[in-house]
């Protein structure tokens, strides 16, 4: 790869990393092309050398955000293989995760935005949702894709609502109840016995 091509690739990665972080923190509609290019140290005019349109940028940034989120998910494989289901549920539905919007689960951070987005963005997230549901299924010890998708939806929904609630005690109680319900799903006891549902 020539020097100019290497520079262009590095710039492209810088733009994507900046955009992915921004949409995880503030949503898809927060992205301003001019502001994004300035923050990446590039000119507004250089944008079309990297992306066909703002919609193209958003799809690529969404892909990056979701891929980065999957790598650090509480359901991602560790050095010893898939994590125990109940342990993953407790990490996902924790105070720490609730309070880490910008670095937490990108599915939860962006699902509401993507539900209103174009087909390209929805296709990207749909694929990542199916991948995440498969990781949940492995941890849960089930071959039922519907049960795994339900569990994933309950995880995402509970985390999202806990972030909306303004009463910290009410938010904590929701997380605790969601942990209790999700660790009681059939099959979950086989991977990790439930522990008392106290906020962490």
Write a compact overview of the structure shown.
The protein has two domains: 3-61, Arc Repressor Mutant, subunit A (Orthogonal Bundle), CATH 1.10.10.60; 72-190, Orthogonal Bundle (Tetracycline Repressor, domain 2), CATH 1.10.357.10. The protein is built from ten helices and no strands. It has helices spanning 3-26, 33-39, 54-71, 85-92, 95-98, 106-115, 119-140, 145-164, 168-183, 188-191.
Protein architecture, described:
The protein is mainly α and 200 residues long. It contains ten helices and no strands. Helix 7 (119-140) crosses helix 8. The chain is elongated and about 55 Å long. Mean pLDDT is 88; it is low at 190-200.
Features:
200 residues, Tetracycline Repressor, domain 2, 2 domains, mainly alpha, elongated, single chain, Arc Repressor Mutant, subunit A, disordered C terminus
């Amino acid at each position: 790869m020539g020097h100019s091509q290497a520079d262009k690739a590095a710039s492209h990665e810088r733009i994507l990393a900046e955009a992915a972080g921004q949409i995880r923190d503030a949503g898809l509609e927060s992205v301003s092309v001019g502001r994004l290019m300035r923050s990446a140290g590039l000119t507004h005019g250089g944008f079309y050398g990297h992306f066909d349109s703002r919609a193209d940028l958003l799809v690529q940034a969404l892909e990056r955000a979701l891929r980065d989120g999957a790598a650090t998910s509480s359901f991602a494989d560790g050095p010893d293989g898939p994590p125990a289901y109940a342990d993953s549920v407790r990490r996902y539905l924790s105070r720490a995760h609730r309070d880490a919007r910008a670095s937490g689960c990108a599915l939860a951070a962006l699902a509401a935005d993507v539900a209103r987005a174009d087909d390209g963005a929805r296709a990207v997230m749909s694929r990542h949702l199916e991948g995440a549901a498969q990781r949940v299924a492995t941890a849960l010890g089930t071959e039922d894709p519907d049960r795994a998708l339900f569990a994933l939806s309950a995880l995402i929904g509970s985390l999202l609502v806990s972030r909306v609630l303004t009463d910290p005690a009410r938010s904590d109680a929701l997380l605790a109840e969601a942990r209790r319900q999700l660790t009681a799903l059939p099959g979950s006891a086989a991977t990790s016995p439930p522990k008392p549902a106290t906020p962490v």
